[in-house]
Write a structure and sequence with these properties.
The protein has 129 residues and is mainly α. The protein has seven helices and no strands. It starts with a helix and ends in an 8-residue tail after the last helix.
Length: 129
Amino acid sequence: MGKYGDAAIKATSLVRRGGYHPCDAWKTATKRQFPTQKSAREKGCPRAAYLGLCEEGIVSGVARGNYTRSVLNKQYALEAVQLLCSDRSLASDKNRLWKKALIGEDKTENGQMDVVITLWRNRLIKCKT
């Protein structure tokens, strides 16, 4: 997918190999992904989406915990996962998934769906039954 999705994959790998807290793993992964772009490394929306999924124990191999104070970006990511779990075809249309995840709001996607869809496509998302 995109660079934030790649960062989510790298961060998850760091956590799964051990020794990294999800927040530190995200920082390390984005530093590698965006070595000269500080604003891209510090972008809150994709970080909050990733950490929100980790927080709920939805990312395979990442323990449930307290990783973010985000409410909205976490909510969007969780809603997107729920939608994907019930309709896998949404993974092929980021804009459609985003609009459905907003539940009637009108906002611009800012890397959140890149994180969700990339983790999904790499089979790192656990659907709750």
